[in-house]
Amino acid sequence: MTQAQSSESGYSQRAIEIAAKVEAFVRDVVVPYETDTRRDSHGGPLDSLIDEMKELARAAGVLTPHILPDGSHLNQRDTALVLRKSGLSILGPLAVNTTAPDEGNMYLLGHVGSPEIKERFLKPLVEGKCRSAFFMTEPDGGAGSDPSMMKTTCRMDGNHWVINGKKRFITGADGAKIGIIMAKSEAADGTGGACMFLVDLPDPAVQITRVPHTIDSGLPGGHAEITIDNLRVPADQMLGQSGEGFKYAQIRLSPARLSHCMRWHGAAVRANEIATDYVCRRQAFGKLLIDHEGVGFQLADNLIDLKQSELMIDWCADVLDSGELGTAESSIAKVSVSEALSRVADRCVQVMGGTGVTGDTMVEHFYREIRAFRIYDGPTEVHKWSLAKKIKRDWMKAHPAPAA
């Protein structure tokens, strides 16, 4: 057990105290902002709203709470507790600076960035002074669930890399000040590989061509389509070396998947609270809705799914804290938690009837956001396919074919 760790919960006393402060801030300060009308054309909160909440979080001492004053991170188990509390409002992670893609980008840069990159790109993110975007997914035929299909290219020209290509579903690109761009190098000797670059935004070579309407609307800037046309990036803004891009993407990927589970768990908890309050007040057929088995059993199922999801998150967090990459474990957690939380949100809508599909409460919004979670960071089916490949690989390793 780590220093000052609670034998009952597995969380450190420090994390318990931070999480309590975050929860109080989200419930008391952030929740009232849910009706704020400062929204863009896609429903996402404007930066003016986000900046206002961040200033309040800074004053309350809960801004970027998972990163400590000395720059070190809480471990994944402790982070799980804190991020779950931040997710109690859709706006919570934005307010306290634990949202995607910034949280994942901070994790990556904190682990592999050079001192110069940390000072220039990581510091303003940790301080909540700007937003970032992660440019990997591409249009049809390019990188997506299969990153090896990457078509965006980069080539050396003097002391710069020149990047060209198209990207798609780039969350928060509109308004981001920092970008992490993945591209495939074109080496003169015919070799190459994935590369990762840090860039300042906006840049005229990085053009937003379209921001489609999507089922979710909880993040600023939407999920943009991007054209990159001869973007010149100084060589010292490459993260690591040419060909190491996928390795760094994996460092970011497993914790980022798990962070999604943490945040959306908080959202599902809040949706269940709202639904519970509703069915314990409203009557039908001579008794409270909660007293009808068709309603009460659905809320019982919610408690089961929420607890199992919490345990799954903590299990995966422990794997990552052990020093293992945890790719398979993060896939298991992502599938299990996203599917379970989607069931929770769906039941909340159902037991609230007509009210559940209106904007009169946050339940309808929680449902839309959590439904999208089953797709983002890899849809359920891709993770199951990956796990099936691992099952086969492990079996064949344990049962080698006899020599001819």
Automatic annotation (TrEMBL):
Q: Which Pfam families match?
A: Acyl-CoA_dh_1 (PF00441), Acyl-CoA_dh_M (PF02770), Acyl-CoA_dh_N (PF02771)
What phylogenetic lineage does the species belong to?
Bacteria, Pseudomonadati, Pseudomonadota, Alphaproteobacteria, Sphingomonadales
Q: What is this protein called?
A: Acyl-CoA dehydrogenase
Residue ranges of domain Acyl-CoA oxidase/dehydrogenase middle in the record: 133-214
Keywords, ordered alphabetically: FAD, Flavoprotein, Oxidoreductase, Plasmid
Give the residue range of the signal peptide. Answer: none
Subunit text: Homodimer.
Going by the entry's taxonomy, the superkingdom of the source organism is recorded as: Bacteria
- Give all residue intervals belonging to the Acyl-CoA dehydrogenase/oxidase N-terminal domain: 17-129
Q: What cofactors does this protein use? A: FAD
- Care to name a GO molecular-function term for this sequence? flavin adenine dinucleotide binding
Q: Could you give one GO CC term from the UniProt record?
A: cytoplasm
Taxonomic source organism: Sphingomonas paeninsulae
